[in-house]
Every structure is written in structure tokens, then in C-alpha cells.
């Protein structure tokens, strides 16, 4: 299994990105193993490779960092658990879509431990929670809020970045962006759903769920071309 690291306090985003890049380079060189890193960031916005300028609604509110991962704009901040999963797809499955599906499944199983039904939505990466108690959404559909974001980058079949689950962030901070470029939906958190879950509670559930979703299947192959 990967090494698990939990960093307390707030980790500056540039620091985390540099550390993650260095570890991935070491993995590619065969000098390091897999790692799951749990942390929180100070309030920031990050832009993925598909981010559209018009989705950054308040560019002066918080620092904005290019993340070099897939996806669009995402908020990170206190009360949100970020899990950077540096995993070797050579050992697991050379299938990026399957990897994203497993990340979603990891979140869904973790939320289920607290009685929350997280769901996937076609064409919308991330995990969603139906909110029938709220006013209907577009077209009269049941309202739903996003509770977890997912962003991935793959280099020579080493996957990194990962997931962000809202435990108790300031949800108003999301108003400075169109989260993941998806309009017409809100965001929620475990505490917003009425669940007094702590970060430590979530960390235990994340580790337990990970072991069921990410089995290893072999050893790393010889270095491959950049994907």
C-alpha cells in the first residue's frame, strides 16, 4: 500500500505542488513508492488545463494558481480535505478513465460511511449529492450539490493530484468561480448536510475505503513514453 502522510495546518499551494512534482519524478525514476498525502490549503483558486477565463468571477478575491491538472477552476481552503494520490498506473491499470472512476468510487464509499449518498453524473466529473429538500434545479430536476472535486494528471503512467472533499469549508468562498465550469448547481459539505464530521473522522474513512477501491496488480514496467 502507499505511504500515507497527513499534514496539519494549512499548506501553501506552491509548496505542495513542488513536493508532489518531486515525488512523482522520484517514482518515475524508480526511487520512491506510491503516496497518499492528506492536507488543507489556505483559501485559493486553482485552474486546470480546461479552465475558461469567464469562469473566474472574482479574480482579486484569493490567489489563483495554475494547477497543470485536468479540469477547470476549483476552490481549496480550510475545512476541505485534499487528498493527493500519487499512484502507479503500471501496477494498477493503464486506463486514465478507469482511474478517474476509481477516484470517484473512493469518494462515494467514503461518504457512505457517514450515511451520505454520493453519485456520479454523466459529463460532470466529481461527486454529487441529491438535495430534494431544495428548490428544483434546471428543467425541474431534483436539485443537487457538488461535495467533492476530482482533478488528475498522468506522467509516464504515474497519476497525481486527486480529490477534494468538503468537510466544513466556507461555502461562500466558492462564489468567486464557476466550480469546475458547471453552472446551475450548488456546493455542499458534510457539515452543511447536518453531519458533525471531523477531519480526523474523514481521514479514517478515506484510508479504509482506499484499500477496497485501489488493489495493486503487479510491478512497475520499464519507463514508457509520456502519456
In short:
The protein has 227 residues and is an alpha/beta fold. Helix content is 23%, strand content 30%.
Please give the structural blueprint:
Elements: E1 3-10, H1 13-28, E2 35-40, E3 44-47, E4 64-66, E5 73-76, E6 80-88, H2 89-92, H3 96-112, E7 119-121, E8 124-130, E9 144-155, E10 158-166, E11 186-187, H4 199-213
Parallel strand pairs: 1-2, 3-4, 9-11
Antiparallel strand pairs: 2-6, 3-5, 6-10, 7-8, 8-9, 9-10
Describe what you observe in this structure.
With 227 residues, the protein is of the alpha/beta class. The chain has four helices and eleven strands, in the order βαβββββααβββββα. The strands form two sheets. Strands 1, 2, 6, 7, 8, 9, 10 and 11 form an eight-stranded mixed sheet that branches. Strands 4-3-5 form a three-stranded mixed sheet, with no helix packed on it. α3 (96-112) crosses α4. Residues 222-227 have low confidence and may be disordered.
> Tally of extended strands?
11
**Anisotropy-based shape:** globular
How large is the radius of gyration? 17 Å
Helicity, as a percent range: 10-25%
Low-confidence stretches: 222-227
Count of helix runs = 4
Instruction: Give the ordered list of helices and strands.
Output: EHEEEEEHHEEEEEH
Major sheet size, sense and barrel closure:
8 strands, mixed
Overall pLDDT metric: 90
Structural class: alpha/beta
Question: Which short descriptors sum up this protein?
Answer:
11 strands, 30% strand, alpha/beta, three-stranded mixed sheet, 227 residues, disordered C terminus, eight-stranded mixed sheet
Amino acid at each position: 500500500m502507499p505511504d500515507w502522510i497527513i499534514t496539519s495546518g494549512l499548506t501553501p499551494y506552491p509548496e505542495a505542488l513542488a513536493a508532489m512534482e518531486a515525488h512523482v519524478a522520484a517514482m518515475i525514476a524508480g526511487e520512491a513508492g506510491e503516496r497518499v498525502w492528506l492536507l488543507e490549503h489556505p483559501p485559493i483558486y486553482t485552474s486546470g488545463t480546461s479552465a475558461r477565463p469567464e469562469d473566474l468571477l472574482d479574480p482579486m478575491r484569493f490567489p489563483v494558481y495554475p494547477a497543470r491538472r485536468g479540469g477547470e477552476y476549483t476552490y481549496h481552503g480550510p475545512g476541505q480535505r485534499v487528498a493527493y494520490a500519487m499512484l502507479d498506473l503500471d501496477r494498477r491499470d493503464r486506463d486514465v478513465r478507469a482511474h478517474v472512476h476509481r477516484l470517484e468510487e473512493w469518494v462515494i464509499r467514503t461518504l457512505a460511511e457517514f450515511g451520505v449518498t454520493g453519485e456520479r453524473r454523466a459529463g460532470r466529473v466529481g461527486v454529487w449529492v441529491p438535495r430534494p429538500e431544495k428548490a428544483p434545479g434546471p428543467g425541474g430536476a431534483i436539485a443537487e450539490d457538488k461535495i467533492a472535486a476530482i482533478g488528475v494528471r498522468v506522467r509516464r503512467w504515474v497519476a497525481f493530484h486527486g480529490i477534494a472533499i468538503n468537510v466544513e469549508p466556507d461555502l461562500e468562498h466558492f462564489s468567486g468561480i464557476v466550480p469546475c465550469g458547471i453552472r446551475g448547481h450548488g456546493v455542499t459539505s458534510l457539515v452543511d448536510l447536518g453531519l458533525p464530521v471531523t477531519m480526523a473522522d474523514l481521514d479514517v474513512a478515506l484510508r479504509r475505503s482506499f484499500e477496497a477501491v485501489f488493489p495493486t496488480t503487479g510491478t512497475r514496467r520499464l519507463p514508457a513514453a509520456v502519456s
